[in-house]
């Protein structure tokens, strides 16, 4: 369901100019119809939940978000200095909820594009050496109990997109079944792990991506995954 900027502003307790700014920045899922914004209601509800949880602090820089996810899964985040790694570990271990991590990871990608692609071609795309599966495409690897039929979700570099479009005949579409999350670094590759033959993003990244899904069950699975990782970090810190 779509909302007008006035309706979205009412739900969020902000003015319409702020809603338009959030839509333009991609924080709220929205589409333009003429000169007007139509805002996705689920996206507004997710933003309202973040506000209600006090999870409105500034997003981490992308390199920090990917480091946090790598450290939480036992990686070394070698691109950080030792002092930075210590701070990031403590920050994650001190996170009060998955919603806060969701906010922190808001800048993990520079943009998101959706493409229409044949279901039979998805396996080949996800198997590319510079593609890292996330969201529903990584759910089976992490045993989340979600069903993923005919859709894909992955991280790629900005430079890789043109090649994927050309090689796999991808057609950009706002309702496409393939979501590509563009990054301007190779940290998605540096932090990836291979599970059951599939190259997947770390759990915190996957969880946050799932938590932004329009489906309530998928969102819940994503938040649960993030909370599980946070529990592990708290236990490790106090153990």
TrEMBL record:
One Pfam family in the UniProt entry: HTH_17
Organism: Nocardioides immobilis
Protein name: Helix-turn-helix domain-containing protein
Helix-turn-helix domain mapped to chain residues: 3-46
InterPro entries per record: HTH_17, SinI_DNA-bd
Top-level taxon of origin: Bacteria
GO molecular function: DNA binding
């Amino acid at each position: 369901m779509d909302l007008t900027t006035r309706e979205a502003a009412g739900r969020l307790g902000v003015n319409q100019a702020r809603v338009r700014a959030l839509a333009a920045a991609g924080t709220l899922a929205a589409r333009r119809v003429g000169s007007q914004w139509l805002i996705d209601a689920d996206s507004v509800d997710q933003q309202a939940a973040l506000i209600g949880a006090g999870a409105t602090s500034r997003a981490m820089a992308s390199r920090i978000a990917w480091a946090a996810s790598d450290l939480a899964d036992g990686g070394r985040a070698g691109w950080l200095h030792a002092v930075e790694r210590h701070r990031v570990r403590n920050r994650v271990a001190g996170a009060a909820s998955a919603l806060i991590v969701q906010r922190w990871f808001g800048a993990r990608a520079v943009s998101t594009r959706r493409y229409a692609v044949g279901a039979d071609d998805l396996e080949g795309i996800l198997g590319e050496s510079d593609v890292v599966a996330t969201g529903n495409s990584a759910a089976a690897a992490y045993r989340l109990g979600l069903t993923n039929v005919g859709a894909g979700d992955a991280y790629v570099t900005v430079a890789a997109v043109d090649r994927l479009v050309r090689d796999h005949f991808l057609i950009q579409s706002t309702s496409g079944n393939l979501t590509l999350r563009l990054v301007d670094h190779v940290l998605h590759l540096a932090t990836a792990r291979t599970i059951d033959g599939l190259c997947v993003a770390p759990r915190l990244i996957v969880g946050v991506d799932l938590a932004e899904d329009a489906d309530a069950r998928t969102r819940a699975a994503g938040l649960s995954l993030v909370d599980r990782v946070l529990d592990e970090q708290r236990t490790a810190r106090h153990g």
